[in-house]
Specification:
Number of strands: 7
Radius of gyration: 23 Å
Mean pLDDT: 59
Distance between the termini: 27 Å
Structural class: alpha+beta
Order of helices and strands: EHHEEEEEEH
Low-confidence stretches: 103-145, 156-161
Number of domains: 2
Number of helices: 3
Amino acid sequence: MKMAEKPKEILVIPILKNFTGQFVLIAVVLGIVSFLFLGIARHIGFLLPGGVVLASLMTIIILLIVILSVLFPITENLFTQQLLVSEEEIIFKKGFITKKQVMMPRHFIFSVEITQTPYQSFVKTADINILSGGYASIEFKGALLEDAEKIKREIHCVSGK
């Protein structure tokens, strides 16, 4: 009889959420969509008394629905970066691009982005020493100390067994 496998413990660390990129993309899409919608809505609105105001209100309501249900979740995936850490591997996700690093007893360099504010992001390098399946040291070069310490502590919680 097989022993029950221990569930794989994964730690998800959101590294950077690029709000600026997300809002700029949403604004551009909304600008194009609202221009088209409003043009069509006004043509229809001229046929009815008070139709232009009604058409403009309907356009705003439709745009709000599109933002909340479609654009925001899609752009959130595009502009969010995550570091996923388990005992077997490290996965770096940037939007829809995923880089996977299988953990082995060796030294390697892993690049992460740490943000100071939603408008300033800096590319940093994390030197991670892996000895016998666990982390020996993690150093974030040039990163903000509180961010580096937080990520280091959370990674050690999963892997430092």
